[in-house]
Design a protein that fits this description.
single chain, 350 residues, alpha+beta, Substrate Binding Domain Of DNAk, Chain A, domain 1, Serine Threonine Protein Phosphatase 5, Tetratricopeptide repeat, 2 domains, five-stranded mixed sheet, five-stranded antiparallel sheet, 10 strands, 41% helix
């Protein structure tokens, strides 16, 4: 990168100052991570927009500690100051520091330049990948789901406990096993248990504010929490939202563009998963393949654009994971499959 380009990026980009980091701290931003040295003072040339900063300590034995981090929408030329606290083994932000000292840091930002790592813009595919994974997340969505300054940490599987109620994490709450209107009975319970369209409509009219971008943004944020923060609440929210969208029938016609974009978002996410990513948590004949097979069967002939987009997804998962999730031919041959498992629908016989 020539000096003129570097100066332009420095002038436009944001800066994260990171003081007193311990030795061998794993530090990352978006899709890149490093083990930092004693001279590290932060990151410069951060493009305006959403980013995820994360970190974890390393023991003397080389074992990585709890991964923690925060999502933040950085503004152009913004300077963010963070300082490591050895007692709590976590960051303190500028609001907890001496305001006069913080202001001096900002006024003398150029003096830190030799100790600032540049945001990884080369090759450009790294930043483009991050943008594709998060382009539907809005500041309002982020503040609702992660109200404590965008903070999130690794949360292991707690043996069946309700991970959706993790403190400081508030993904949209809904029960796929109760996807029918209050007071419904008989045929109506069966109908909306087999078709999640009523529940999707309720969510769109409520927490997602009738904006498809909010539904897909929540899906993206849940996946980012899973992939980068290793957060189990993110996994549960991602599974639940995928299950909701794959389980719809009527809405596929009424909200076709939402489902075309959902298919795009899902494939972008799966492209970041190695072939063995789902081996333990989402294996063949388990959650994701089951949901994609349901989605395949539900797509009607009257939505050719969605059918074509799903066919592209079908071929991708076959190449990447060797999954057979059906397709047009299978959808013609099979009207319904028996559904079981965690989110099995309620069927009422009259």
């Amino acid at each position: 990168m020539d000096q003129e380009t570097a100066n332009a990026l420095f002038a436009r980009g944001a800066v994260l100052l990171f003081f007193d980091a311990p030795a061998k701290l794993e530090f990352g931003i978006d899709c890149s991570a490093w083990t930092i040295g004693p001279l590290f003072k932060g990151i410069k040339m951060i493009p305006p927009g959403l980013h995820f900063v994360y970190y974890s300590t390393t023991s003397k034995e080389g074992t990585s500690g709890l991964r923690m981090g925060f999502f933040k929408f950085f503004e152009s030329q913004e300077i963010v100051v963070k300082k490591w606290d050895l007692e709590i083994e976590d960051l303190r932000d500028g609001s907890e520091l001496d305001p006069d000292q913080v202001e001096r840091y900002k006024l003398n930002i150029r003096s830190f330049d030799p100790n600032l790592g540049a945001y990884p813009l080369h090759p450009p595919t790294i930043y483009q990948k991050w943008q594709r994974l998060t382009d539907k997340i809005t500041p309002l969505l982020l503040s609702r789901v992660l109200p404590q300054g965008g903070r999130v940490s690794h949360l292991p599987d707690r043996g069946g406990e309700d991970t959706d109620r993790e403190e400081g994490v508030a993904f949209a709450a809904f029960d796929l096993r109760k996807s029918f209107p209050p007071g419904a009975a008989g045929v109506e319970v069966t109908r909306w248990s087999l078709d999640k369209s009523w529940l999707l409509g309720k969510m769109m009219d409520g927490v997602w504010g009738s904006d498809p971008k909010n539904a897909l943004g929540e899906l993206q944020l849940a996946f980012a929490c899973l992939l980068f923060a290793q957060n189990f609440s993110g996994l549960e929210a991602w599974k639940r939202t995928v299950g909701l969208l794959c389980g719809c029938k009527e809405a596929l016609v009424e909200r076709t563009e939402l489902f075309v974009e959902f298919t795009n978002v899902l494939q972008t996410q799966l492209e970041e998963c190695p072939p063995d990513f789902f081996h333990d948590i989402l294996s063949e004949n388990n959650f994701l393949t089951h949901e994609l097979k349901t989605f395949s069967r539900n797509i009607p002939r009257t939505t050719p654009r969605l059918r074509a987009r799903f066919e592209s997804l079908r071929m991708f998962v076959k190449r990447r994971f060797d999954w057979d999730i059906g397709g047009e031919a299978r959808a013609e041959e099979e009207d319904e499959e028996d559904e079981d498992g965690e989110y099995a629908p309620v069927v009422v016989e009259m």
